[in-house]
């Protein structure tokens, strides 16, 4: 599959890839990754933004790195809950960058099929990094999510089993129309499986925080550097649920770091209509 998947080496989204070096280095600093996944570029970027991060933690009470911690932990929690219920589930992490999740989950669940995908250059970097620490070599696929290769990738999974697709640090880089396109592709793909679940983080509009304007302005720097459409598209959980429905997901739950939806029972009983002020949310959607 790795060698014959059609890929778009000149993807218009390739400039987003550098951000994965930054997050990859933060995962390492957080103690949840391996030195092999911490690149020099990531170290340099982390050093560059560290004073701003410290300032934001003191003044706003949150920073990019605190949101990384929150989103990563919430996605792990929901994935663990799903795997406990469906031990035969397969996982596809798209836009995986240098995230250690695949490496960690393949160790934690030795029989788990956990495939990772990203644009060609990033997939090659990840494959190279993991070749130093993981045997047998895991499947790291080169796929542009907006290209034909994505359906080929889905066809390589067992459709009789559940599939969980994970994206982290991806969805804010696109316009709302592109996001609808992406989510529609994911929902359409997931419908081919016995159970289809999509787990993603999302940065909502930072409306209830002090210095929301500053966060918007900082995001514009990211938008320019990644040559992407980086933006905050949603203000309320209800809007996200509606967008997911339009894309083809029947059921969505929004997890906010301040809520208490830490068990499936609690998740059902809590109202999702209110923005609790957190900078990042995690969404679990089913087809
Ligand atoms: C901010 S990084 C996040 C990486 C990782 N998920 C993490 O949280 O550390 C965004 C990732 O999205 C990938 N990406 C962007 N556009 C993509 C596309 N069209 N297809 C596949 N991957 C894409 C980039 O290459 C990059 O690795």
Notes on the protein architecture:
- The chain is 44% helix and 13% strand.
- It has ten helices and seven strands.
- A seven-stranded mixed sheet has the order 3-2-1-4-5-7-6, with helices on both faces.
- The model is unreliable at 1-8 (pLDDT under 50).
- With 287 residues, it is an alpha/beta fold.
- Strand 1, helix 4 and strand 2 (113-118) form a beta-alpha-beta unit.
- It has one domain: Rossmann fold (3-Layer(aba) Sandwich), CATH 3.40.50.150.
- The structure holds S-adenosylmethionine (SAM).
Rg computed from alpha carbons, rounded to a whole number of angstroms? 18 Å
SSE sequence, one letter per element: HHHEHEHEHEHEHHEHE
* Count of individual beta strands: 7
| CATH topological fold name | Rossmann fold
Helix/sheet category: alpha/beta
Q: How many separate domains?
A: 1
The quaternary state of the protein chains shown equals: single chain
Characterize the biggest β-sheet. Answer: 7 strands, mixed
Distance between the termini: 26 Å
Shape descriptor:
globular
Task: Summarize model confidence as the mean pLDDT.
Answer: 91
Note the total helix count. 10
**Strand residues, percent:** 5-15%
Enumerate the distinct ligands.
Answer: S-adenosylmethionine
Q: Please give the CATH class.
A: Alpha Beta
Low-confidence stretches: 1-8
Main sheet: which strands, in order across?
Answer: 3-2-1-4-5-7-6
The gist of it:
With 287 residues, the chain is an alpha/beta fold. Helix content is 44%, strand content 13%. Helix 1 crosses helix 2 and helix 7 packs across helix 9.
């Amino acid at each position: 599959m790795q060698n014959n998947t059609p890929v778009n080496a000149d993807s218009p989204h390739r400039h987003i890839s550098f951000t994965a070096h930054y997050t990859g280095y933060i995962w390492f600093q957080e103690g949840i990754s391996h030195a092999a996944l911490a690149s020099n570029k990531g170290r340099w970027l982390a050093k560059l933004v560290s004073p701003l991060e410290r300032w934001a933690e003191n003044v706003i009470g949150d920073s990019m790195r605190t949101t990384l911690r929150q989103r990563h932990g919430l996605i792990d929690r929901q994935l663990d809950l799903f795997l406990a219920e469906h031990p035969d589930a397969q996982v596809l992490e798209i836009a995986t960058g240098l995230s250690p999740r695949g490496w960690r989950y393949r160790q934690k669940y030795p029989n788990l099929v956990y495939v990772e995908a990203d644009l060609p250059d990033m997939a090659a970097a990840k494959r190279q990094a993991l070749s130093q620490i993981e045997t047998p070599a895991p499947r790291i696929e080169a796929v542009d999510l907006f290209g034909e290769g994505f359906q080929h990738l889905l066809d390589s999974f067992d459709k009789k089993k559940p599939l969980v697709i994970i994206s982290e640090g991806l969805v804010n880089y696109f316009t709302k129309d592109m996001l609808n396109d992406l989510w529609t592709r994911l929902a359409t793909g997931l419908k081919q499986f016995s159970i289809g679940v999509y787990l993603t983080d999302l940065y909502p509009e930072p409306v209830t925080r002090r210095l929301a304007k500053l966060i918007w302005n900082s995001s514009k720097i990211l938008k320019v550097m990644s040559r992407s459409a980086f933006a905050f598209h949603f203000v309320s959980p209800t809007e996200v649920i509606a967008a997911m429905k339009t894309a083809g997901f029947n059921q969505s739950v929004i997890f906010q770091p301040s809520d208490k939806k830490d068990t499936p029972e609690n998740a059902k009983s809590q109202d999702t209509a209110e923005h609790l002020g957190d900078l990042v949310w995690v969404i679990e959607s089913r087809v």
